[in-house]
UniProtKB/TrEMBL annotation:
Keywords: Signal. This is Uncharacterized protein. It comes from Paenibacillus profundus. Residues 1-23 form the signal peptide.
Length: 494
């Protein structure tokens, strides 16, 4: 019922135009249908539009964005108990067997390791050290917090002064998301906390990992820490959490990036984009190349809520509705990984803000615009009508893949006849263009017009109307009046 009402509402606009033209009809107008009539002289009631084609850009510049707001407490966080690399007894007792291989300088052969533990009370922490990383390698750490919405654990990374052996108590990286349960493929959980660093020195370097219970504690709800070291990685590592995201601007035709890889099972690549208030889209498409997707690579988009809670945004066919503000894009793997670069594509789904009818075709050709008494309008002959047009944004960028509904109306046919309306639908091409051909009923010849001249004729026709509208934005529409020709009668010489 709603669909029918919407169509009737739009058709009434055409009728209104028809009535307005009828009221201002000029009797005795001469007919102009000569072969010298050009398209530029032809009258189309809708405005013309010069369509721009949005080009896709390759992203070759990435800039580290500033940390998200509300993380001052993380920057002030320090380790409360001093640790020194020369305290051999403490070091031997600290690391569990699962991480032991990472505690020996230059001898680590294990590239990944996992530790599980609990924190009984709020404010307490678990420390894992020393974690040695060879020169030129990167260290990535992931904390999978307890599956409890009442607990909020953070992850910190510190480095040792390799000359004195003392721990530098200011963290070099931290991940302090607020607990917020999202729906993932493997169930409801909060986003993992991730940190990372690169050993840019010429010697082994040691690190300390801290899991801190910011809110709550439990002896029954375990956390899991996974570590990975990598020798081969892309030039932009490490950017393991949203606080170290790379920013870039999305071009009107979309942007793509092909300079990053996923080098470990816990590698996270983060990007941040800003959606301005003045824009020609409300949805963006986020996708990865098919080869990367087949390996298990994922792309996700997050919005930031209060207390750095990361909300996973829902997608439909890779499309994500976005309002004004900043959004964080995460690329990671749930399966394989290697040093092959993935391609991340981000493309605005341009918003259809205007539709223009820019031409017709029928039995008399595309330039058949006679000047009957109601004005100069296109004439339908032989009961076929092709409607051509274009869909664009408010700033005239072509909108591809927009569904367009075209409705033709001749009110001289009764509703019960089945001949009063004809409809057709089509999707715009990459240039925003559409073309719909309708097979129409015969004209009722409701209007007769005598055309005096050297040879006199009387033409019989109907006034009809046409509407072209964007299917999912029906208020974006264009209307026009058409002559529906029936026949002509010879009236002798003048």
């Amino acid at each position: 019922m709603k669909k029918k009402m919407s169509i009737l509402t739009i058709l009434s606009l055409v009728l209104l135009l028809v009535f307005q033209v009828s009221a201002f009809a000029i009797d005795g107008s001469t007919l102009n249908t000569g072969p010298d009539m050009t398209a530029d002289q032809a009258h189309v009631t809708t405005d013309t539009v010069r369509v721009l084609h949005a080009e896709e850009e390759i992203i070759d510049q990435l800039t580290k964005a500033g940390p998200a707001g509300g993380i001052e407490y993380a920057e002030r966080h320090t380790v409360t108990s001093p640790v020194n690399l020369h305290d051999a007894a403490a070091l031997q007792a600290n690391l569990p067997d699962s991480l032991r291989a990472l505690a020996q300088p230059s001898s680590a052969t294990v590239t990944t390791a996992t530790y599980s533990g609990v924190i009984p009370k709020e404010g307490e922490a678990v420390h894992l050290y020393p974690i040695y990383v060879k020169p030129g390698d990167i260290l990535q750490v992931q904390l999978d917090p307890p599956l409890s919405q009442q607990l909020n654990y953070d992850l910190y990374l510190y480095e040792f002064d390799m000359t004195t052996g003392n721990l530098i108590t200011t963290p070099i990286d931290y991940s302090v998301y607020g607990t917020y349960f999202n729906q993932y493929a493997n169930g409801m959980r909060t986003l993992s906390e991730n940190v990372g660093t690169k050993n840019a020195t010429s010697a082994d370097k040691a690190y300390l990992i801290e899991v801190h219970a910011k809110q709550g504690g439990s002896i029954n709800d375990p956390f899991y820490v996974t570590l990975a070291t990598s020798t081969d990685y892309d030039a932009f590592e490490t950017d393991e959490n949203a606080f170290h995201a790379y920013s870039f601007t999305v071009a009107p035709g979309g942007s793509s990036l092909n300079s990053r890889s996923i080098s470990s099972p816990i590698d996270n690549d983060w990007y941040v984009i800003t959606v301005p208030e003045n824009r020609n889209y409300d949805v963006m498409n986020f996708s990865l190349d098919s080869a990367s997707a087949a390996k298990g690579y994922k792309v996700e988009v997050y919005g930031v809520l209060a207390d750095n809670q990361m909300k996973l945004l829902s997608t439909t066919d890779n499309n994500v509705p976005l309002g004004t503000g900043s959004y964080y894009v995460r690329v990671y793997t749930t399966g394989q990984y290697d040093t092959t670069n993935y391609t991340l594509s981000i493309k605005p789904v341009l918003r259809a803000d205007k539709i223009v009818i820019n031409g017709y075709n029928s039995g008399g050709g595309p330039n058949d615009y006679p000047s009957y008494r109601y004005g100069r309008y296109f004439r339908i002959i032989n009961n076929t009508l092709t409607v051509n047009g274009v869909v664009a944004t408010s700033d005239n960028y072509a909108v591809a893949n927009a569904k367009v509904d075209v409705i033709w109306l001749n009110e001289n046919w009764t509703e019960g006849s089945g001949n009063r309306t004809r409809t057709g639908s089509v999707y715009t091409n990459n240039s925003g263009q559409f073309s719909v051909t309708l097979s129409l009923p015969s004209s009722t010849a409701s209007i007769s017009e005598f055309l005096p001249g050297a040879i006199n004729f009387t033409h019989y026709y109907d006034l009809s109307g046409v509407v072209a509208k964007v299917a999912d934005r029906p208020h974006v529409s264009a209307t026009d009046i058409l002559y529906h020709f029936a026949y002509s009668l010879y009236g002798g010489r003048g």
